[in-house]
Amino acid sequence: MTLDPTTAERRALVTGATAGIGAAFARRLAADGWHLVLVARDAARLSEMATELGSRHGRAVEILSADLSTDDGCATVEQRLASDSPVHLLVNNAGISLNKPFLRSTAEDEARLLRLNVHAVMRLTLAALRPMTERRDGAVINVSSVAGFGAVMPGSTYSASKAWVTNFSDSVGQSARPFGVRVMALCPGYTRTEFHERAGINMSKTPEWLWLRAEDVVDDALRDLRKGKLVSIPAWKYKVAVAGLRHAPIRLLQAVARDTRSRIGRDER
Ligand SMILES: NC(=O)c1ccc[n+]([C@@H]2O[C@H](COP(=O)([O-])OP(=O)(O)OC[C@H]3O[C@@H](n4cnc5c(N)ncnc54)[C@H](OP(=O)(O)O)[C@@H]3O)[C@@H](O)[C@H]2O)c1
Question: How many angstroms is it from 251 CA to the middle of ligand 1?
Answer without folding.
Answer: 32
